[in-house]
Amino acid sequence: MVPRNKLSLKEKYPEIYAQTNIDRTGHKRVVPMEMLSLGLGRTGTMSMKAAYEILGYPTYHYVSMMENPPDLDLWLSALRRKYSPHPDEKPFTLAEWDALLGHVSAVTDSPINAFAPELITAYPNAKVVLVERDVENWYKSFEKNVISSFAAPMTRVLVKLDPGFIGKQGKIGEFLMRYMAILQFILGHEVALEKIDRIELRCLQDSEDKVLKLAHD
Q1: Which run of H or E residues covers position 158?
Q2: What whole-number distance in Å separates Cα of residue 201 and Cα of residue 19?
Q3: In sequence order, what are the residues at sequence separation of 6 or more whose Cβ sits closer than 8 angstroms to the Cβ of residue 22?
Q4: What does the DSSP 8-state code read for residue 89?
Q5: Per-residue pLDDT tens over the stretch 67-118
Q6: Which of 9, 75, 182, 198 is 20–30 Å from 28 (CA)?
Q7: Hey, is 193 helix, strand or coil?
Q8: Helix (H, G, I), strand (E, B) or coil at 162
């Protein structure tokens, strides 16, 4: 196996180089929504994506936005309308969620997890999965891999220089960092899901076998 530091950018980040250009505005749902994996980033979300796809569930993950850049505009609209709406704006409707996510049967990672209550309401027949991780270990990983990336001076420069692909990702990151409030969010997120009482599986990382069993039930 080639060491990661010897890989080219294309080999390290194949999702960035496999872009489509589909504007999903107005699209209809073509497959049922089956699995809502609503754990936070850095809790094995990419492993969950891989597990679901092995089972035959097309899955939406943060990298899906990089694979199809027009999705960035739809997520920015959803985030703004939830967290910083104009007076005449309303939250995303079921039709809009179906347009954005109608081609997948499972979802995981950010920014999906910022809409846990909305998606649980929109898809009452989907199974809800919450992957947990020790809070301190999670925060160290999240800070190292996510917060530091969005907060890096070079990232801010690139966001200003490129208002398109990179700039939109930066804006999504700003929304997520500003309104999740990190540690407060992780606690509030789990409490909110408990109140909704729809969690069908609670597991730690490396529990893909439990997920496979749930998906087949």
Answers
A1: helix 153-161
A2: 33
A3: 68, 70
A4: -
A5: 999 999 999 999 999 988 889 999 999 999 999 999 999 999 999 999 999 9
A6: 198
A7: helix
A8: coil
